[in-house]
Amino acid sequence: MINLEWLRTFKSVYETQSYTKAAKELYISQPGVSLHIGSLEAYVGYSLFERISKKLIPTEKAKILYNFTLEPLLKLETAEQTFHKTTKTERPTVSVGMCFETFQFTLEKHIPTFDFNVIIRFGMYEQMFTDLDNGLLDLIITPRKTNLKNLNFEAFSKEKIVLINGTGTDTSEFKKLIKNNKIEEAENWLKQQIWYSTAADMEHLNNFWKANFNRHPDFKPNYIVPNISSIVRCLSGNSGFSIVPDFLCKKEIANGGIAITWEGNNKIENTLHFGERSKNMVQNEINKIKNIFRNENF
Known about the structure:
The protein is of the alpha/beta class and 298 residues long. The chain folds into 2 domains: 4-85, Winged helix-like DNA-binding domain superfamily/Winged helix DNA-binding domain (Arc Repressor Mutant, subunit A, Orthogonal Bundle); 97-297, D-Maltodextrin-Binding Protein, domain 2 (3-Layer(aba) Sandwich). The chain is 44% helix and 21% strand. The strands form 3 sheets. Strands 3, 4, 5, 6, 9, 10 and 11 form a 7-stranded mixed beta sheet that branches. A two-stranded antiparallel ribbon has the order 1-2. A two-stranded parallel sheet has the order 7-8. A hairpin with a 2-residue loop joins strand 1 and strand 2 (55-58). Helix 1 packs across helix 2 (19-26), helix 2 (19-26) packs across helix 3 and helix 7 (172-179) runs antiparallel to helix 8 (183-191). The radius of gyration is 24 Å and the shape is globular. One of its GO terms (molecular function) is DNA-binding transcription factor activity. Belongs to the LysR transcriptional regulatory family. InterPro entries: LysR_HTH_N (IPR000847), WH-like_DNA-bd_sf (IPR036388), WH_DNA-bd_sf (IPR036390). Residues 2-59 form the HTH lysR-type domain. Keywords: Transcription, Transcription regulation.
């Protein structure tokens, strides 16, 4: 059986690229780190690191192993911290799932004011539904719903999916084509422009394109960035286009860095919901978080 300590040591070496730093981080000796990595390599049957310019560079097999084991290890570390004996007064803990941009726009600035513990999880909505039903999450913020019997959904706001441009972009030709109802020409013009998207999710682009041009987009964005907030910052005052929820760029629109190019002839509007279980031990804390979202200017 694989030893959990081998994997913890592997994770630390992978992230620090050093046996010495990993030993300090784990409070073990450097020979102990070497022993753990050697034992793990013997178990899996291949080398995990190559030493290049005084750094330990992970092999392709190591990258795969890291991606497979990272989330379980993080969960175990969280469990260890949560259940470690302490003399401090226990505080309620609320686990909340949502997309990264929604967290950054709404909840992030309020985190230091909470008198309870908060764990924020990002991920796909289908997984959030499962985790909520299984008790791993207490609250989710989602534009979708599911029919799981134990879950309740409450609508609280809406988001509009729009085409935006940096204000360094000349959109006069596009607006002329749209005004004259030359939709196909407008589509072709857009496909020749600079586009931003995210690596994880092109759903907004796909849905908007299909609703307004009756097909999936057949072009590749020029710039793939980590999240929608990055798109907004990159576009502000510069050239290019993207398709995003309107509430995520209100500040930049007000400041003149971004403009809404087109809402589409067939507008896409998502209803945002709170999702929670029918019975919850942290309902008071959940209600405080829900009130923050209700008071935000979506």
